[in-house]
Amino acid sequence: MASNRTFTFHNGVNIPDIGFGTWQIPNEEAYKAVTTALESCYTHIDTALAYQNEENVGKAIQDSPISREKIFITSKLPAQIKGYDATVEAFDETISNLGVDYLDLYLIHAPWPWDDIGRDCTEGNIESWKAMEELYKEGKIRAIGVSNFAEKDIQALIDACEIVPMANQIPFYIGRDQNSLLQFCKQHNIVVEAYSPLATGQILDHSKIKEMATSYGVTPAQLCIRYCLERDTLPLPKSTNKERIIENSQLDFTISSEDVQKLATFEDVRAK
Fold first, then answer.
1. Which ranges of 21-139 would DSSP assign to H, the alpha helix?
2. Which of 42, 110, 217, 232 has the smallest count of CB within 10 Å of its CB?
3. Which among 19, 7, 2, 14 has a CA at the least distance from the CA of 245?
4. Residue-wise pLDDT tens digits, 121-161
5. What residues does the NADP-dependent oxidoreductase domain cover (predicted)?
6. Residue 6: which residues within 8 A CB-CB, separation 6 or more?
7. Which domains does the chain have, with CATH numbers?
């Protein structure tokens, strides 16, 4: 799926192979962070209505000298919103917040509300997906997908709807490979996006990761992000630090297959 620094969805739309994540970046800091990312060669920006930073993410994109068509924008339907009409309303709010005419990718943020994880919201997800299919057909979204969906959640959409999700954004990092889900998505030609590729920073002090990073002449963060690419997933690192934003995009090296296999055997990488 990864080719020429892009992944390709099953509808032919290309997405840059690394995105700048904005989760946990407050609205007042989002403008500077996204501006820095755009100046540092990122052209793929990931946000969500639930992040409460879409307005300044959008302003940074509007103020950038890079044309809108060259910036790939992802946002997400809040996890607690289920149903056709509510989905359309939330999408319209996101478009207004960002100040754009269309999204490149729109995701259902989770199959259940965050305060009720595991609840069966199958019918609501199906209705939301049907609304997203319609927005897609109208040209308001270039690609549609899901986030935090397990195999059964995706299968429910496939069985009841017209369009197979084009992406599934999940937590994916060394020690949390989710191999069964990864294989399921591959079988259905669903691009897997890896959020929290650094496990929110918890894996950067792991002694074996630091040792391997040194052997490649890169930082632990670069090794962890590159690992996601080696596993055919699309990483979404985030930072508000300019040096780290730049560093996280400098991935012009490869990890040997032997070392990828070693990293894939790690279980609890958050333990030193």
1. 27-39, 54-63, 84-98, 122-137
2. 217
3. 19
4. 999 999 999 999 999 999 999 999 999 999 999 999 999 99
5. 18-264
6. 14, 15, 16, 17
7. 2-196 (3.20.20.100)
- Helical spans, DSSP H, in 100-167: 122-137, 151-160
How far apart CA 268 and CA 272 sit, in angstroms, is 9
Strands 167-171 and 14-16: unpaired
Per-residue tokens: 223: 């090794």
pLDDT in tens, 157-212: 999 999 999 999 999 999 999 999 999 999 999 999 999 999 988 899 999 999 99
Return the closest-CA partner of residue 209 out of 225, 196, 224.
224
**pLDDT tens profile 84-104:** 999 999 999 999 999 999 999
Rounded to an integer, what distance in angstroms lies between the CA atom of residue 134 and that of residue 59? 27
Does the pTM surpass 0.85? The reply is yes
- Cβ–Cβ < 8 Å for 186, 216: no
Distance between CA 7 and CA 127 in Å, rounded? 28
C-beta neighbour count of 247 within 10 angstroms: 18
Catalytic-residue membership of 51: yes
Binning pLDDT at 50, 70 and 90, where does residue 1 land?
very low
Specify binding-site residues for substrate: 109
Instruction: Give the residue ranges of the annotated binding site.
Output: 109
Q: Does the pLDDT at position 72 exceed 50?
A: yes
Q: Which of 42, 51, 106, 227 is catalytic?
A: 51
